[in-house]
Write a structure and sequence with these properties.
Chain lengths: 346, 87
């Protein structure tokens, strides 16, 4: 499958900005850099949209614009948390008014499929529309749906996205599990040897096409997911199987994009894989750009696609001897949901 | 009545998140829906909640909405009538 275009609203302003100087953060969370939405969305629609909807709709519109596509043949999103701010708004109202009053707009907009639905409404697109809510596999399953549909000839293209937002309440609740590290810094995220990471968020959209075009960002050669590996050896076995299925060897990989997030326990998996199965393969860690969140795999694909299209890496990455032609993305969420993507230059 | 209409204009802007509008931008007799402020059916639900939340008034039946929510003045008249009945 060809990635015709890729757009993101993330804690980084743009890929171009990452080539100059990636945005750095301190604290325990990263926040998306948001554009002026009024230039992209009808003001009448904006007033009803919460932050995640605006982020998702804007990223989707930008992605379609870059590809020169007005009407996609499918809109498929993945989100683990859904529209949290709207959910909080209507639940708070219900509690405040003793379950007698429901705030209609927040209630309607609180469902997980709102982003995909709002994109369709905006485009007046009556094609296939689906949303996957599968925790750390939400984006991956949306992508798998798109790939499967295109392979079966269900349309020429598919708009696929991964969206998740942080709200103050969700951050407070998730922090109770000890997931985040107070006073962290993206500059030293991987070096402290401590528990916990930095919370993240983002809205990423890709336009996939079964047919090549002149401006493609990358070719998605293969993808694979696996659940709750018992050991590091099992992870390596899954990765070896994935390479074999795609007829390549570890030495063929020019760059690995890895989901290390600074949490020593979960990062050990990545380190073991790199040391034992991919020794000598250059790698780039990406969570200091976007933070840790269940659909961060979408950001990794966005990043990999841009690296392949431009042949350039973010300014803080180690230089490669030559522009990469094959990129392997390995990401996992809490060592439960593992995903692999194989990208090639077009 | 003027005070009630001023309150309603402020509450409508807040409830419907009409950030670009100021209370003085809404005329007392300006239609709220379609050709007026351009509100729609979801906004109608929000206005029903507004009446209940701010004035403890429940619309007796759905058909009433068409006349009650015609303008800020008709809303104010409806609220005044209902409050007089329950007083």
């Amino acid at each position: 499958m060809y990635i015709r275009s890729a757009s993101a609203i993330s804690p980084q302003l743009s890929f171009q900005q990452m080539l100059d100087a990636p945005e750095g953060y301190t604290g325990d969370r990263l926040r998306c850099v948001e554009p002026d939405y009024t230039a992209m969305i009808d003001p009448k629609m904006i007033r009803r949209m919460s932050r995640i909807i605006k982020m998702g709709v804007s990223a989707a519109k930008d992605c379609l614009g870059k590809a020169g596509v007005e009407q996609p043949d499918a809109i498929i999103t993945g989100t683990a948390y859904g529209c949290l701010a709207d959910t909080e708004a209507f639940l708070s109202r219900m509690i405040g008014f003793k379950e007698e009053l429901l705030n209609p707009t927040s209630f309607i907009q609180s469902t997980h499929n709102t982003v995909a639905a709002q994109i369709a409404l905006l485009l007046k697109c009556h094609q296939y529309n689906n949303t996957y809510v599968h925790r750390g596999f939400s984006f991956e399953n949306a992508l798998l749906d798109a790939v499967t549909r295109l392979r079966e000839g269900e349309g020429e293209n598919a708009l696929v996205g991964g969206v998740d937002e942080i709200t103050d309440s969700s951050h407070r609740l998730l922090s109770r599990f000890g997931l985040y590290r107070a006073n962290a810094s993206t500059a030293t995220l991987y070096e402290t040897g401590e528990k916990g990471t930095m919370n993240g968020e983002g809205a990423v959209f890709l336009l996939l096409s079964a047919n090549a075009s002149s401006g493609d960002y990358a070719w998605l050669e293969g993808m694979h997911t696996f659940y709750k590996p018992a050991t590091g050896e099992e992870v390596q076995k899954e990765m070896a199987g994935f390479l074999k299925n795609n007829n390549i060897a570890a030495e063929d990989i020019d760059l690995m994009i890895c989901g290390d997030n600074g949490d020593t326990k979960n990062d050990k998996i990545y380190q073991q894989v790199r040391n034992e199965s991919f020794a000598g393969v250059p790698y780039l860690r990406f969570k200091h750009y976007c933070g840790e969140y269940p659909t961060a795999g979408a950001f990794a694909l966005w990043l990999g696609s841009h690296i392949l299209k431009t042949g350039q890496l973010p300014a803080d990455a180690e230089k490669l001897p030559a522009p990469p032609r094959k990129v392997l993305v390995h990401n996992h969420s809490l060592n439960i949901h593992h995903s692999l993507f194989l990208l090639s230059v077009c | 009545m003027d005070k009630l209409m001023a309150d309603l204009k402020r509450q409508i802007i807040e409830q419907l998140n009409l950030k670009d509008l100021k209370p003085e931008d809404i005329g007392d007799d300006q239609p709220l829906f379609v050709e007026g402020l351009g509100l729609d059916s979801i906004d109608a639900l929000e206005l029903i909640v507004l009446l209940q939340q701010e004035y403890k008034i429940k619309l007796a039946n759905a058909e009433e909405g068409q006349t009650v929510f015609r303008s800020v003045r008709t809303m104010a008249q409806y609220i005044t009538e209902r409050q007089a009945k329950t007083a």
